[in-house]
Amino acid sequence: MSCVEAVGELETRLAETTLEDVASRHRRERKELQAKLQAMKKNAPKNNKNKRKEFLEEMTRLESEMDQRHKAELAGVASAEPTATAAAESDHDNDKEEVHNGEEDADGTQQQRVSKAQKRRNKKEREARERAQEIRVELQNAANQPSPKQIELQQITAKLSGRQLTLHMIASDGDCLYHAVRHQLQVNALPGHSVQQLRQETANYVRAHKDSLICYMTHPETGDLLNDEQFEAYCDDIAKTHAWGGHIELKALSSLLRVPIEVIQAEGSATLLGQEEFGGAPLVICYHRHIYQLGAHYNSTLPVDK
């Protein structure tokens, strides 16, 4: 199908679609995409960094394309709806004229019955037009509202700005926590580590401190505490895959590097680990909940003058 044909098909589709239909379809499509993204995230290869990166890029592309298409459809329906409403009103006026002409030869009872039916129909049509207008306004307002991602970025950026810091973006490949910490080591002129070294040392630390950490480690599906076999699998994933890192890994990194780590997020106070034990300036990273559909993400920071 050519670009012109595709545009024409979209215009035809919009002209024949009500705002209620569009809103319902958009909700259904977003729900279906969420399910698809979750499946892709689950099936993304853990041991092939390049292949996993392709998966993540494809997930981002699908989400972006759907958002753009939804906005285009909303704009199209919003502009087409007044025309459709005017046509409906014209048909309604013609119907009234036909009823009026027919009443000239009818008796009074028939005229009264038609009049009541017409009033009911007028009321239904008026309510339908009012509801359509309400939906149009709601959809337009929703399309113009900043997304959770945008709101979160604005909040984090504002917090960083107050501390003369700026956001340093880290690739979303499962290693984001370790890349962010590695970048902070470089920024603060501390001994460097590769991502693989950080992963291996983190796994070693978690194993060595099993007794104090396992009480915080639960299975993501059941919520039960990890058993010994699951604990070993968890540590293997830290060392050998691109598994995401969370609070357990942050605690381990702070302890093994002997440096405080501060995690800034959009809402609430920053989380500071290792300050009492090690003191000094912390490594400052950012935690994002909404920047990507596939889950949590970490970015690093830089002083404004760098």
Automatic annotation (TrEMBL):
Keywords: Coiled coil, Hydrolase, Protease, Thiol protease, Ubl conjugation pathway. Residues 78-88 have a biased composition (Low complexity). Gene3D superfamilies: 3.90.70.80. SUPFAM superfamilies: Cysteine proteinases. Residues 63-131 are annotated as: Disordered. It catalyses: Thiol-dependent hydrolysis of ester, thioester, amide, peptide and isopeptide bonds formed by the C-terminal Gly of ubiquitin (a 76-residue protein attached to proteins as an intracellular targeting signal). It is an enzyme of class 3 (hydrolase). Pfam families: OTU (PF02338). GO terms for biological process: protein deubiquitination; proteolysis. GO terms for molecular function: cysteine-type deubiquitinase activity. Residues 165-304 form the OTU domain. This is ubiquitinyl hydrolase 1. The gene is LOC117572805.
